[in-house]
């Protein structure tokens, strides 16, 4: 018997800014993703004091502008998802396609019609849409004119955007998430909050104010959804990296506890429990702040309490280890974060430590803490795929990674965790958020496109495509036992 419940939401995940393309078609405005240069140094570039969101095509490349041209290929791609047997497809709606500048009062109907078509295509293939309202694609105007999410005007603009799409799709889309990896701003606030050094990214007061504004906006989205239609479910979405103390040194144990509070739990504590946690005072004091330094009011705090999220979506790629005594010098890279090297773990080509057991731990930690349904909405293995002459990729390394993480999820379900579904990241190759490259591939589907934007854009099924199709068909890794045929009459043997 499969460990996964009937109705488990198997699928895949993408983001508009990494695959759609068509960045100036259909009345779409520019987003912050359009101004992020491609290449491994993209985060270093935007961290410079003089970065001002200027798009300089003579100096940089911008692979997000074309993505994989999902804007013109969505029917083909969704058909491939259906061939794999997807029960759901997690994607985002580009805010600037609906409100080009973010601050308009009326939406762009052409943009909405595009998402009408995408959603209807999913439903025609019996695929449940799972929509992220804001996924690293803040309208560029809201970053340049208003300074990003530190500005409280953005609460109103987001509420208007959320109301527009929730109202339009309430009868078609049941599952929503308010902000992608909202807690990633702890390390890098550019993507989630639209803050760069020139607009105050290095001042933690701005980061915490931006978070508060997003918490309020999220609660408003939950309120809108719950008032629109019974049964709509709105979740938060966090980046979760299971964190270990490097050793039994109490100093490292305490540092790990505090690391978990700041990165893994702070944003979800507010969005799920509906109030700021007790450790907020210590956390703010770490940066020389008090809660009075933030602009809040009693009405907003009451709103947070009244409209917490319905479930917790999260990404899981790797774990981290905390060592504060300076005894360990060997460090690793990670998903917007790093840490010391864990000697018990292998790593990907990009230095992300592979830890499927950490996913089982994460699921137990989150469910023990919140007792609300969980949804693994990102997980995957970024690698350099080498197709043969027919563009077929033997990606056993990806299959092995995903298999181990699915086994970890099965273990967590056996532990008693309420897990809704699993949508591996980049189910079709797309532009990497961390490096702006095509060469860092996650998908079950190979897209013929390189880092310089050259290629046919044709889609090809990888080995993992057929493997994942089998996983979904069997509702897990274990093969279903064929049902015994009881309709046939028993065989009689005539013995001479």
Automatic annotation (TrEMBL):
InterPro entries: GH, GH_1_N_CS, Glyco_hydro_1, Glyco_hydro_1_AS. Its EC number is 3.2.1.-. The active site is at 378 (nucleophile). Coiled coil: none annotated. It comes from the Bacteria. It holds the Pfam family Glyco_hydro_1. This is Glycoside hydrolase family 1 protein. Belongs to the glycosyl hydrolase 1 family. The keyword Phosphoprotein does not apply. One of its GO terms (molecular function) is hydrolase activity, acting on glycosyl bonds. It is an enzyme of class 3 (hydrolase). SUPFAM superfamilies: (Trans)glycosidases. Keywords: Glycosidase, Hydrolase.
